[in-house]
Amino acid sequence: MKVGLFIPCYINQLYPQVAIATLELLEKLNVDVYYPQGQTCCGQPLGNSGYEEDSKGACKVFVENFKAYDYIVGPSGSCIYHVKHHFDILEQTPEVKKVRDNAYELCEFIVKILGVTDLGASFPYKVGLHKSCHGLRGLKLGSCSEVMGIHFSTEEDLLNGVKGLELMALNRKDECCGFGGTFSVFEEAISVKMGKDRIKDHLDSDVQVVTGADHSCLMHLEGLINRNQQPLKVMHIAEILNSSL
């Protein structure tokens, strides 16, 4: 299979180590990975702000860059969700449908498409998993706590396969962190309070490292942690799965 590696703009600019970890993980799994040099933002910030019509240009560029690949894989649940569910604003050509149908968040691709849960990683720390709203409720990467039935989580499956890692149980395991993209700008006070609540849950649960599959949420939490000088480290799940400590 030919996989197009989609690196969201904020990861490209601020967290290049996440992009590198994602690439190395896929290469370890013998995936034929390509990085389209012309890729840009997927258009999510404009769409979230109510300017969907103005985002069409970015959406079309995305399709043009990734239409040749069997799968599109990215380390961001919210961006992948945008591609799959909000590219409906474009004319639904075969190319657009192919891109939408074959876009996958990294963990989902590894577990559901490649059928792998043990990546041979080692990370001897107590880890708290933040389940982002887009990944959990949008992409269905796991079961929601308020829904009765069989529990499942692609992220937990992968973390449980990491040697030495202790996945800590949180009191409110799938509560929103308050980021919400532009919500954190327009409703700053509420966003900060929600983020502090999530951080307190991790601290109360004896967590050393906070992780997740959406670095926009992790960026929000990390900012609050650093500002308040709290004893927590934040890492994207790709970094942990690629670790050999």
From TrEMBL:
It comes from Algibacter agarivorans. Residues 3-83, 129-221 form the Cysteine-rich domain. This is (Fe-S)-binding protein. It comes from the Bacteria. Pfam families: CCG.
